[in-house]
Amino acid sequence: MTQEQTPTPLVELHGVARRYQVGPATVTALDSVDLRIDEGEFVVVLGPSGSGKTTLLNVIGALDTPSEGRIIVGGQDISSASRGQLFDFRRRTVSFIFQSFNLFPGLTARENVEFGIDASGRRERSEAVKMLQDVGLGDRINHFPHQLSGGEQQRVAVARALATDNPVLLADEPTGELDFRTGTQILELLRAEAGPGHAVLVVTHNREISRIADRVIELSSGRIVSDGPPPGGPAPISELHW
Ligand SMILES: Nc1ncnc2c1ncn2[C@@H]1O[C@H](COP(=O)(O)OP(=O)(O)OP(=O)(O)O)[C@@H](O)[C@H]1O
Ligand SMILES: [Mg+2]
User: Fold this and answer.
1) Which of 3.40.50.300, 1.10.10.10, 3.40.50.20, 3.40.190.10 would CATH assign to domain 3-232?
2) Which of 1, 106, 115, 96 is CA-nearest to residue 56?
C-alpha cells in the first residue's frame, strides 16, 4: 500500500478505562479499551443498557476524562491537552448527537443549527435552512424545541451536528425517537457523512441498524467483546426493517 492509500486514523484509544467511585463502590464503565477508527468508517457501537456506550462517546468527545489510558482524536492527544486546546477541539473536531438531544431551549431550530455552524466555522450560516430541509424540517425552522415533537427535536440535533462538518461525528441513539421511514432517512444522511476526512460512530441498542455499518463494535460491561464487519458485509439501507 502506498502512503496515499493508508487511511488516516481519526480516533485512537489505548488502554482506556473509566471508573466512577460511588460511595464505597467502584463502577467500571469502560475497561481496557483499545480502538482505532479511520477516516471513511461508518461504525455502529452495540451493547445493552449500562454497557458503556455513552461513556465511550463522551471520552472520545472530551466531555469526560478517562481514569486511565490515552485518547488521540484528529491527530490530537486529548488526554494531555490543555483546557484551551480542548475548548477548540470540541468546536472544530467532534460533533455530538446526544441521547437526550441537548438543544438550546431558547433558540429556534434554525438558531440551534446556526450555533453548530458558528462553532466550527466550516460553513456559511445561510446553509442552516438547507440542513433543516435535509432532515425534513423545512417547515419548522422558526420553532423552539418545546414546540417540536421528540423526533423533530432529534432531527434538529442531527442537522446541528451535520452542520458543523467536523471530522468525527458521535451519535448516541440518533434514531431512538424516530419512525422507520424517518429513521432510515437520518441513517442515510449519517452514513453519507462518513467519507474522506470524516468518520461516524453511531451508538444503538438496535442490532438491525448495525447491518448497514462498515464495522460493528460490541460492548459488554465496559469492554469490547467483538469488532468487525456485520455478517455478510454492510447491507444497503433499503434492506433494513425495524
Ligand atoms: N456519573 C456516573 N457515576 C457512576 N456511575 C456511572 C456514571 N455514569 C455512568 N455510570 C455507570 O457506568 C455504566 C455505563 O454507563 P453508560 O451511560 O455509558 O451506559 P450505556 O451503554 O450508554 O447505557 P444506555 O444504553 O442505557 O444509554 C453504567 O453502569 C452506569 O450506571
Ligand atoms: Mg447511553
Assistant:
1) 3.40.50.300
2) 96
- In this predicted model, what pLDDT tens digit does every residue of 198-228 receive, in sequence order? 999 999 989 999 999 999 999 999 999 999 9
6 CA distance to ligand 2 middle (Å): 33
Q: Using a pLDDT cut of 70, give the percent of the chain over it.
A: 98
pLDDT at 152: 94
- Cα separation, 140 vs 9, in Å, equals 37
Q: Atom 6 of ligand 1 has which residue's CA nearest to it?
A: 20
49 Cβ closer than 6 Å to some ligand 1 atom = yes
| Ligand 2 (single-atom ion) residues, CB below 5 Å | 54
Q: Residue 18 CA to chain centroid, in angstroms? A: 19
**Cell for 233?**
458485509
pLDDT tens-place string over residues 79-114: 999 999 999 999 999 999 998 899 999 999 999 999
**Average pLDDT of span 29-52:** 97
pLDDT of residue 7: 83
Q: How many CA atoms are closer than 13 Å to the CA of 98, on its beta-carbon side?
A: 9
Domain range annotation of the chain: 3-232
Residue 74 CA to ligand 1 centre (angstroms): 26
Distances, alpha carbon 206 to alpha carbons 58, 130, 192, 202, 209, in Å: 20, 29, 20, 11, 6
